[in-house]
Amino acid sequence: MTERIIIAGSGGQGIMLLGKILSEAAMRENKFVTWLPAYGAEVRGGTSHCMVVISDKEIGSPNIEKADSLIIMNGPSLMRFKKRIKERGLLIINSSLASKYKNIKLNVLEQPFSDIAVGLGNIKVANMLALGLFLAKKKVVSLKSVSEVIQAIAPDDKKALVEINKKALEEGSGLK
User: Fold this and answer.
1) On the chain, which terminus has fewer CB atoms closer than 10 Å, C or N?
2) How far is CA 49 from CA 15, 31, 64, 163, 176, in A?
3) Residue range of the domain that includes 154
4) What is the number of structural domains in the chain?
């Protein structure tokens, strides 16, 4: 099993955090993993993406030419990365910030992650909603491992956000 994932959005959407949590959870499950972050000088508001490879065997390169899965959090990222997914790949789109996308060669799932996150009380958990949906479909790591990572990596001044992130992860795993 090897899963190649590109996660993309704008700075401030938790793109790097999503990739880091996914990578750490995979390591806790004794899988091979690479995490390759990339973002512009603008950071917050600018474009950012990361590439995560999770495998049961050694990984030759962290770079992904064609992803098995794309998690897209805004429109500009969809335009930039839509051709970087394999045929029959999983494309998860934040429909709050990206327009509808039809492609019969892909498994496209669209959910208004940002809108749902606002309803949960914090727009910044849209990334965890997307991660929950991804894990429900791909099951590359367990929700339990991801929840443990969320708990473990939260800085002391952000411990209050742990529960809402876990709630968003669970809610995302129930989306279709």
Assistant:
1) C
2) 6, 22, 12, 25, 24
3) 2-173
4) 1
